[in-house]
């Protein structure tokens, strides 16, 4: 009888961000503007990189793919969240829930690998400038990009496969604004210990591995520029790398709290705030961060605006 009941629960209720009707319209308008700006900013950055031959180098190839992933991530989460602000029913089917989490997991994991790849690219450009053109070839860049997306795909498939072992028979309320794995595990009738362990191991390994690449790359970059003792070189390096370091710092903080430090000490509202930051706010901020702190992007944008004026 328990198995029968477990198979009947195929829909979930997403609680969303607020229980107070008075906040629905202001929050809807705010997140709608953030989403539209995110799409325009990231797709605009991709178009700029594609159309300007001066930006056809590894650094901007990786940046363009980061913008694509940010667009994908925001689109996976935000439209459903916006609809649910005014929907009479915030139900989501089990299959839709799994698809949303699958798409989300690909994006988040791929972005981790892309940020590490960008750090490695900066290390090669600054520490080994003479070898850089020979090492960072188009072939290697394509391989690194392919590995980043394949890593994201594998990680998503792994967790989605383990979701199929779970049954949901009692609670169907997901305390979140999208289908994330931790809130789903909390309402499962099946013992989710294995799933929690898989999240901790694989999410932890991916984050530690990619963070180490970033830290080692920029440590070596710092040693290199301080050895040269050139004030102009130091300023140029921080101008080049500052945007990436800021993006990495903002991105990894919430992820570490969400998946490497599992929700044992985290309240549902805190989980949602962390998730909101890296699924909605970071994709919105990234094109601003990389555009405002990048002279080539600003010059390319200025030229494009003058041509179209």
UniProtKB/TrEMBL annotation:
InterPro entries: GPCR_Rhodpsn, GPCR_Rhodpsn_7TM, Olfact_rcpt. The chain crosses the membrane at residues 27-48, 60-79, 99-120, 140-158, 196-226, 238-261, 276-293. Residues 41-290 form the G-protein coupled receptors family 1 profile domain. One of its GO terms (cellular component) is plasma membrane. GO terms for molecular function: G protein-coupled receptor activity; olfactory receptor activity. Keywords: Cell membrane, G-protein coupled receptor, Membrane, Olfaction, Receptor, Sensory transduction, Transducer, Transmembrane, Transmembrane helix. Signal peptide: none annotated. PROSITE patterns: G_PROTEIN_RECEP_F1_1, G_PROTEIN_RECEP_F1_2. It is found in: Cell membrane. It is a multi-pass membrane protein. The keyword rRNA processing does not apply. It comes from Vicugna pacos (Alpaca). PANTHER family: OLFACTORY RECEPTOR (PTHR48018). It comes from the Eukaryota. The gene is LOC102544146. The keyword Transmembrane applies. Gene3D superfamilies: Rhodopsin 7-helix transmembrane proteins. Belongs to the G-protein coupled receptor 1 family. This is Olfactory receptor. Putative odorant or sperm cell receptor.
